[in-house]
Design a protein that fits this description.
Layout lengths: L11 H12 L3 E5 L2 E4 H17 L7 E5 L4 H12 L3 E4 L6 H10 L2 E7 H4 L2 H8 L4 E5 L1 H8 L15 E6 L9 E5 H14 L7 E4 L6 H13 L2 E4 L5 H11 L3 E3 L2 H8 L14 E4 L6 H10 L4 E5 L9 E3 L11 E5 L4 E5 L12 E6 L6 E2 L3 H7 L5 E9 L5 E6 L4 E3 L2 E3 L1 H9 L4 E11 L3 E10 L7 H9 L10 E4 L13 H7 L11
């Protein structure tokens, strides 16, 4: 085997190989009763890379994955990277037609799919129609790996070659394929170590879907230093606390509702959670009372990290030393590789205290949207990446998120930040999740409407929730209506799908008296 082109390269597949050479006997992944070492993970991913190349796939061609979290997911992902191919993870929660759309749009030459998903006739038929070769996991995948030798493959990879195309959730239309290079992702991973320090032999749960950029970034960050990932396929507070105790978890990324579930669990005192030294949260803020309790009762160090698929996470971090100093929807300050600013619609950078669009630039930026030059150009106007988020810097330079531009509600000539109203609803003792949208209204143009799901065993009324909001918000911000639902539509990463709420309840005021 030759080693040309390797002396200074950056390639994501090399992450696992280098870690295997320095701490091969350390456990890389724990997946139920499977404990796989870094050496074994490296060898198995080499086997899969060899299988892919034996299929005649050429560097730069795409390989799709329709798989849930597992150790095989990680083997396959690294195998794709090592073969110089482009990894295309697909959200398993999408409808069959949408999964097929992503695979076809990415021009995938091969797709991996879990057996339970392949059993879905509609998905199986749709995928077969657009992908030439399908490998079913685990049976066909295991056989494919077993037939290949474990030695390292020799593929020339450039740092600016595409490493992945990750499709956005597509909440306003068809998903867009975000292209990232080996360099952009690796730069983000190195930057993460400054704010999410992990060490060899430590442990972190891998809970959110691995097809999402957040879990992917955390997984790569932990594997770069030889930490141990605990694979989850769903959240259960008891199983999570058990992992904290038995695996001595030191760093954990959970959604705010998950942290609250652990905090309020009646059996929490039975578990030793003392190994945790950093708790990370994202996707939503944590209210002041809950944040104070988490810091006092679970771990002294909590932080919020934010990012986008387009600017590989993290981009900004609200650090532990700020958690009890500022309350509200704070996002903090930039990570080491990322530059953040506030911009108006004409491309002017705004001063502290002024609201505008949050924009970024740095080496963790995407190459663009796959086969969509117009959207790419729009996203990088004026030389910055445009997030579609509204925010401002306070007088101390801390970034405060205001709202998504498309979610800002214009009611009676006033701008209402949906996230502000959601924070008030979430502060009610009975509310588990909340989404606030603007719906058509004859008098107000848009009326503020809240949707909530309640915590198990709690009760409240819609009138009581409106009164709760009225005490804490301005009159124009107070919802004109609140609806209690069994559950809110959510993305795979726990974000409320507001477009579904708008579509399902757009006629809520139709035929009603103007008020």
């Amino acid at each position: 085997m030759t080693t040309t082109g390797r002396i200074g390269r950056i390639a994501l597949g090399d992450v696992i190989g280098r870690t295997a050479r320095t701490c091969g006997d350390e456990i890389a992944l724990v997946d139920d009763d499977v404990r796989i070492s870094y050496r074994a993970l490296d060898e198995e991913s080499n086997r899969f890379a060899r299988f892919l190349l034996a299929q005649g796939l050429q560097p730069g061609e795409r390989v799709a994955m329709v798989c849930v979290n597992s150790y095989r997911f990680v083997i396959a992902m690294f195998g794709i990277h090592k073969a110089g191919l482009v990894w295309v993870p697909i959200n398993t929660m999408l409808a069959p037609a949408d999964i097929a759309y992503v695979a076809e749009h990415a021009e995938a030459k091969l797709a991996l799919i879990d057996t339970p998903l392949y059993a879905n006739e509609a998905l199986r038929t749709a995928l077969k129609a657009v992908v030439p070769r399908i490998v079913v996991v685990p049976a066909e995948f295991d056989a494919a790996c077993a037939a290949q030798p474990p030695g390292e493959v020799d593929v020339e990879i450039n740092e600016r070659d595409l490493a992945l195309i990750m499709y956005t959730s597509g909440t306003t239309g068809r998903p867009k394929g975000v292209m990232h290079t080996h360099l952009s992702v690796f730069t983000a991973v190195l930057s993460n170590l400054a704010d999410m320090p992990m060490r060899r032999g430590e442990a972190t749960p891998l809970l959110l879907p691995m097809f999402h950029c957040a879990t992917h970034a955390i997984m790569l960050t932990s594997m770069l230093v030889g930490a141990r990932g605990i694979v989850f396929r769903g959240f259960d507070p008891v199983r999570m606390m058990t992992a904290f105790e038995h695996e001595h978890v030191t760093f954990a990324f959970l959604l705010p509702a998950m942290w609250s579930a652990i905090l309020d669990h009646p059996d929490r005192a039975k578990f030793d959670l003392s190994s945790l030294r950093l708790g990370l949260y994202a996707m939503a803020p944590i209210s002041e009372p809950v944040r104070r309790r988490l810091i006092a009762e679970i771990c002294p160090n909590f932080q919020l990290s934010s990012g986008q698929t387009e600017m590989y996470p993290a981009t900004v971090v609200f650090r532990p030393d700020e958690q009890l100093r500022r309350f509200g929807n704070y996002w903090g300050t930039s990570t080491p590789v990322n530059e953040t600013a506030i911009m108006d619609d004409d491309g002017n950078l705004l001063d502290r205290g002024q609201v505008g669009e949050i924009v970024h630039r740095g080496p963790n930026v995407m190459e663009g949207y796959f086969k969509d030059p117009e959207a790419t150009a729009a996203a990088r106007r004026f030389g910055w990446h445009h997030t579609g988020d509204l925010g401002m810097f306070d007088q101390d330079g801390q970034l405060l998120f205001v709202d998504r531009k498309k979610d800002l509600i214009k009611s009676g000539g006033e701008n209402v930040a949906s996230v502000k109203v959601e924070a008030v609803l979430l502060a009610h003792a009975a509310v588990a999740s909340a989404g606030v949208v603007g719906v058509p209204h004859e008098r107000w143009g848009e009326a503020v409407v809240g949707f909530v799901a309640l915590k198990p065993g709690t009760e409240t009324t819609e009138d009581e929730l409106i009164a709760h909001c009225r005490e804490r918000l301005g009159g124009f911000e107070t919802p004109k209506a609140v609806r209690i639902l069994d559950r809110l539509p959510m993305t795979a990463t726990g974000k409320v799908q507001k477009h579904e709420l708008r579509a399902a309840h757009s006629d809520i005021f139709a035929g009603s008296a103007v008020s």
